[in-house]
TrEMBL record:
Residues 20-499 form the Major facilitator superfamily (MFS) profile domain. Gene3D superfamilies: MFS general substrate transporter like domains, Multidrug resistance protein D. Its main location: membrane. This is Transporter. Signal peptide: none annotated. It comes from the Bacteria. Keywords: Cell membrane, Membrane, Transmembrane, Transmembrane helix, Transport. The keyword Transmembrane helix applies. The chain crosses the membrane at residues 19-42, 85-104, 110-131, 143-161, 173-194, 206-225, 237-254, 275-297, 309-327, 339-356, 368-389, 477-495. It comes from Streptomyces nodosus. It is found in: Cell membrane.
Length: 527
């Protein structure tokens, strides 16, 4: 057995595993921080490079490349070895970061961001799959809870770090900052991570990869462009929907024929895996919608400063951090996990419903309590979904299980931002026209999301109308989120609590003891 495996009997990781886990947390931080840092630097980037009309593509190119490559990285890790695939994705991400920092015009920056996104697709998948290889599921909860904490910290600190770097070092360092952190992670993983090499004789499923890439790209473009660049009923959006549906149907058909499918459909025969993918999709839908609209509400209605926008989410992300750590510990100690998807879904629905009740008179303390309820629900769901999904498949499918679950969350976030955003924009336009007439309609004609400078220039009556409009818009968006969240609760109720592999000896019954013995054998064979 390689010295990286956590002994099932003790559950205490050797020093090499702790070093690997630190490197994995740095890598996850890179994946989570990037868009938030770059988002803060975008006004400065546009000011120097120009190309304002192509601004959205700086984010879209990265998102598209990340989503399209995510399932491929998972499959490559399963076929040819997790370590090599993961290190390759880090290298590509760092190359894309360096090139992005050196971009001389907006076209170059968009292209280099796509390269960066190709590498980013393998970062999150690699982190989760390697944890799945090294840590038995019974012990995995506390470590994945730590990863959820890293995600929360990245969301809080991203805008602050981005603003500080841009103000003091220049926007190019928003990309260059990835290099030293990535190199440290790369060196640590190269030196201390020991996993078996795999030499698969099967060929890569190029046709399946192409069909999946086209399908995912079409979906992301529909959710990105729909209602903003193009009307939802426009010919371009209809074409993309047609291409996306045809590609995904073709992909599913081909996966039943391919010798080594990109996403082996047999993993969906596991009820728990399918349910966790559904819950992950809904979690992404809700969470990224909340991250988008909560700061907007607090800035427009409650008069908060946009400078510390990351801190505005502290009640939600802080609760998510604490609860995810507790959930991981409880799962590790008890081996039971079904309670967390159920309780998490309930808290998510309640939190979203409470947030939908906010109006122009809601205090910051009250909205903070509501956010904390939502954050507690997210904390129960974020990493438990990955843990149960990985426990539902064989070790040889660990990579595709991790990538499929990650992709479901990514697609959920795309749909959440698009659908909740469309609902928000329509509601804001309606209320502004209702309260401020033609002036109100003109104010929000270009965008329903006004920045602080634009708000200051509005007449008092128009500003008050906009505050009511944003309050109405967030009501509609969060109410939709609560309704969608009910689907996660229904899915959670059908989860079957299958014993976690690697549970260690349990005196309560012979089945648990037998499961622990089997898990030790599995870990030994895998590592």
């Amino acid at each position: 057995m390689a010295d990286n495996a956590v002994p099932a009997e003790t559950g205490k990781p050797p020093r090499s595993v702790r070093v690997v886990l630190l490197a994995l947390m740095i890598t996850m931080m890179l994946a989570m921080l990037d868009n938030m840092i770059v988002g803060t630097a975008m006004p400065t980037i546009v000011g120097e490079l120009g190309g304002l009309q192509h601004l959205s593509w700086v984010v879209t190119a990265y998102t598209l490349a990340t989503a399209a490559s995510t399932p491929l990285w998972g499959k490559l890790g399963d076929m040819y070895g997790r370590k090599g695939a993961f290190m390759t994705s880090i290298v590509i991400f760092l190359i894309g970061s360096a090139l992005s920092g050196m971009a001389q015009d907006m076209g170059q920056l968009i292209g280099f961001r796509a390269v960066q996104g190709l590498g980013a697709g393998g970062l999150m998948v690699g982190v989760m799959a390697i944890i799945g290889d090294l840590i038995p599921p019974r012990e995995r909860g506390k470590y994945q809870g730590m990863m959820a904490g890293v995600m929360a910290l990245a969301m809080i600190g991203g805008p602050l770090v981005g603003g500080t770097i841009t103000d003091h070092w220049g926007w190019r360092w928003a990309f260059y900052i990835n290099l030293p952190l990535g190199i440290v992670a790369l060196l640590a993983i190269s030196a201390v991570l020991h996993l078996p090499r795999k030499l698969s004789q099967a060929r890569i499923d190029y046709l399946g990869a192409a069909l999946l890439t086209v399908g995912i790209t079409s979906i992301v473009l529909v959710t990105t462009w729909g209602g903003s660049e193009y009307a939802w009923s426009s010919a371009r959006i209809m074409e993309l929907i047609g291409i996306g549906v045809a590609s995904l149907v073709g992909f599913l058909f081909w996966q039943t024929k391919a010798a080594e499918p990109v996403v082996p459909l047999h993993i969906f025969r596991s009820r728990n895996f399918s349910l966790m993918s559904t819950i992950g999709f809904i979690t992404g839908f809700v969470m990224f919608g909340a991250v988008l609209f909560l700061p907007l509400y607090q800035q427009a209605v409650q008069g908060a400063s946009a400078t510390n926008s990351g801190l505005l989410l502290l009640p939600m992300l802080g609760a998510m951090l604490v609860v995810s750590m507790v959930a991981g510990r409880v799962t590790t100690n008890s081996g039971r996990y079904k309670v967390f998807p159920v309780v998490g879904s309930v808290l998510m629905v309640v939190g979203l419903f409470l947030l939908s009740q906010m109006d122009t008179d809601t205090t910051r303390f009250t909205s903070g309590v509501y956010m904390a309820v939502l954050g507690a629900g997210m904390g129960c769901l974020m990493q438990i979904t990955m843990l149960v999904a990985q426990n539902s498949v064989e070790m040889r499918d660990m990579g595709v299980a991790s990538s499929t679950t990650t992709l479901a969350r990514t697609l959920g976030s795309s749909f959440g931002v698009a659908i909740m955003g469309a609902l928000f924009n329509n509601r804001v336009q309606h209320v502004m026209t209702e309260r401020a007439g033609a002036l109100g309609s003109k104010i929000t004609q270009q965008s329903a999301q006004l920045d602080a400078k634009s708000l200051e220039k509005l007449p008092a009556a128009a500003r008050e109308a906009y505050q009511h409009a944003v309050s109405a818009g967030t009501h509609s968006a969060f109410l939709l989120g609560a309704i969608v969240g009910v689907a996660a609760l229904l899915a959670a109720l059908f989860v079957k609590e299958v014993p976690l592999r690697g549970a260690g000896p349990d005196k309560r019954d012979e089945d648990a003891a037998g499961d622990a013995a089997e898990a030790r054998t599995t870990v030994a064979e895998a590592v």
